[in-house]
């Protein structure tokens, strides 16, 4: 992670970031700490959390940094984490619900269980985080701020990412509805719709169908400079949007274009998605357990393999920088 200057705009504030042990969550925590905020990182893996805290301590000596092992699918765990964070650092004044999973597979290789898993982690995880944090945010002397991380995938039905898109769409609607309902309490809610970012997330994404080919196209696009966004810049913009109490943030030109196209011509956008689906790997017609990217050997020798190697080079470097290889 490169050091960038950020104004100390959040001195005496405290924050909680779910999904904070790696990738975008870690980078958002970094940007909040850079602004003088006391930060609690929450995630399921204790070892990853320890590694993440150590990275941030090296970058921000003297910063108040804590970790909390938490599965956001369990509302009781979320409640306990918020109570502990409040006792340690006060607040929290800022909460970022970022925890998520990515499942990449054609429809004929998944079933209801995959949709349920995506909804449990991303939508219910965001809901639990929002419901349990709002009492603290309402009491914040700085004015509470809540951010829910959706995705460009939540703005339309993206082929081979349907469970992810459904969960992210629900998360976006939740954020925008909460913004309206909590405005009178002095709490602001920011709905964040990132596009593809170079975070190294392909290593922990889950793949089904023709796993090698699915991994190939996803990792190539997620690392392509003209399609994906530098994750540090994305995190800085998200932190800035939260500080400025923005209602909605759509990141990357591709995501903004998709948002506009779907709003102006939804039927045409859906047909174009259908054409895109035909370019993606064909399904195998069988259901097998999904496998994480770090356990998949990408295709070699073919055009897909060369494109994957070229497009994922930057994403591989991001994986090292953003704690994606800690386990």
UniProtKB/TrEMBL annotation:
CDD domains: SDR_c. Coiled coil: none annotated. InterPro entries: KR_dom (IPR057326), NAD(P)-bd_dom_sf (IPR036291), Sc_DH/Rdtase_CS (IPR020904), SDR_fam (IPR002347). Pfam families: adh_short. GO terms for molecular function: oxidoreductase activity. GO terms for cellular component: membrane. Residues 13-195 form the Ketoreductase domain. Keywords: Oxidoreductase. Residues 283-308 are annotated as: Disordered. Belongs to the short-chain dehydrogenases/reductases (SDR) family. This is Short-chain dehydrogenase. It comes from Streptomyces silvensis.
């Amino acid at each position: 992670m490169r050091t960038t200057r950020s104004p100390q705009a959040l001195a005496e504030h405290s924050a909680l970031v779910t999904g904070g042990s790696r990738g975008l969550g870690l980078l958002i925590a970094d940007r909040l700490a850079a602004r003088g905020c006391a930060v609690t990182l929450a995630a399921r893996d204790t070892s990853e959390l320890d590694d993440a805290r150590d990275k941030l301590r090296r970058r921000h000596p003297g910063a108040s940094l804590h970790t909390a092992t938490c599965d956001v699918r369990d509302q009781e765990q979320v409640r306990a984490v918020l109570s502990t964070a409040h006792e340690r650092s006060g607040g929290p004044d800022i909460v970022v619900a970022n925890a998520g999973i990515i499942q990449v597979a054609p429809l004929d290789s998944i079933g209801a269980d995959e949709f349920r898993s995506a909804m449990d982690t991303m939508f219910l995880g965001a809901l639990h985080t929002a419901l349990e944090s709002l009492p603290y945010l309402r009491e914040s002397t700085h004015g509470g701020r809540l951010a829910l991380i959706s995705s460009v995938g939540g703005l339309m039905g993206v082929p081979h990412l349907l469970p992810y898109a459904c969960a992210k769409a629900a998360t976006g609607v939740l954020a925008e509805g909460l913004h309206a309902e909590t405005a009178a309490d002095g709490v602001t809610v920011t709905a964040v719709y990132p596009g593809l970012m170079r975070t190294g997330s392909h290593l922990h994404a889950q793949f089904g169908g023709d796993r090698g080919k699915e991994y190939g196209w996803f990792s190539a696009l997620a690392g392509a400079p003209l399609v994906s966004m530098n994750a540090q810049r994305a995190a800085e913009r998200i932190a800035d949007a939260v500080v400025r109490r923005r209602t909605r943030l759509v990141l990357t030109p591709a995501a903004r274009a998709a948002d506009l196209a779907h709003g102006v011509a939804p039927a045409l956008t859906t047909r174009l998605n259908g054409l895109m689906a035909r370019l993606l790997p064909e399904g195998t017609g069988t259901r097998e357990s999904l496998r994480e990217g770090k356990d998949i050997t990408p295709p070699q020798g073919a055009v897909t393999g060369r494109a994957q190697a070229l497009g994922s080079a930057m994403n591989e470097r991001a994986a090292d920088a953003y704690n994606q290889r800690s386990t």
